[in-house]
Amino acid sequence: MAEEEKKKFDSDRAASLVKELRGSFASGKTKSYEWRIAQLKSIIKMIEDNEKEIVEALREDLSKPELEAFVSEISMTKASCKLALKELRHWMKPEKVKTSITTFPSSAEIVSEPLGVVLIISAWNYPFLLSLDPVIGAIAAGNAVVLKPSEIAPATSSLLAKFLEEYVDNSAIRVVEGAVAETSALLEQKWDKIFYTGNGRVARIVMAAAAKNLTPVVLELGGKSPAVVDSKINLQVTARRIIAGKWGSNNGQACIAPDYIITTKAYAPKLIDALKCELEKFFGKDPLESKDLSRIVNSNNFARLTKLLDEDKVSGKIIHGGQRDETCLKIAPTILLDVPMDSLIMTEEIFGPLLPIVTVDKVEDSFDVINSRAKPLAAYIFTNEKELKKEFVRTISAGGLLINDTVLHYLAAGVDILQLANPALPFGGVGESGMGSYHGKFSFDAFSHKKAVLYRSFGGDASARYPPYTLGKQRLLRALLNGSIFGIILALIGWSKA
Q1: Any stretches that span the bilayer, and where are they (predicted)?
Q2: Residue 360: phi, psi to the nearest 5?
């Protein structure tokens, strides 16, 4: 019992940890380019040395297929590190900016400085990537970091605690394992930034705790991400890309997975047939036996998804799938047609392998359906119509939009494993789907303060700025502030426009 008490992580231990990290940050060590580079290289080495153990932990937590674990977790984390290593010197360099005539002669720059000691609370669905990706940004920006992995993915949490302690500088980078009690103890402390990935309910708790100390937050949440399907498309490619984004992304347990489809009543039968056909090709006649589908993370989430399916007004709407194995925590890819809009499955984020299809009279009506709901993290449209694409981009507010594909904007926001995507896109939500963004340079910026610096010499000291404020001085200052060269000349020679 005494040993258990000794190991208990409470508010006192959290405060002691933050104090220790503040001491390390105050020493200046984390600000150096060399320290940042060394930590990033150590993370890459950690991944390369322990890839087998990482894959095994992800299999234990989620039954994640090895290829999916490699592509969406290991490779993306390494790629994020490599981009930071390549670009860090450029990111750290002060940005020169223009000055105005009112400060002439002068020069100015924006200096990126680390915020200090930051807290990162990660999610369970991509427990390796979503833990280390923001940590990489925080390190690149020169901060001391505490990572709190999700207890819902215990194998990966334990792995991160073990290997980060072994590979990185523990005086500035620490991992705290645990559940609600440990997270609460951490949230009681004063941080310089809190980065949270998860759901809106917990995000409100995080934001309330942060508000007590005026701590800025990044909230990476989710929402009901729609996929609009027009009739003028390549149907097979569309079906495959929806399946890849839904069931090929952790079996729907992804914040940017398509949450529901909107298509026309006339086109729905063709789309459904295509989805059924491609699903059988990908996962076989009995998808519960497929080794290419992740399981539901735990019994609580299995029960939650079962409740969505078993609601009276929903259970009769299943047109494909619906098979379940509670012992193995597996649910087959499931398609539902025209479920009531007030049902649980259409009012809550699904975060699982269930995909409702909503039908409308004409595809343009889908925009009203989307805009009548909270802003999603992602929104997708499949169409060849140029004007429809423009209207989608103009009308729909979401964290990110993707035309004719799913989830790839997440890779584009990070770094594609094939280095084909664009790492210049930010990834983040809007409204209920989150605030702030990260990935690539945006991760560095998320954990940096942009400090404005103006340089002046002792020359060019204009008497017009000092009392007494004569009429001539007033005319000159008005002309300067209005940017009127002609007015400045008139004021200097003693004339006025009047």
Answers
A1: 476-495
A2: -130, 165
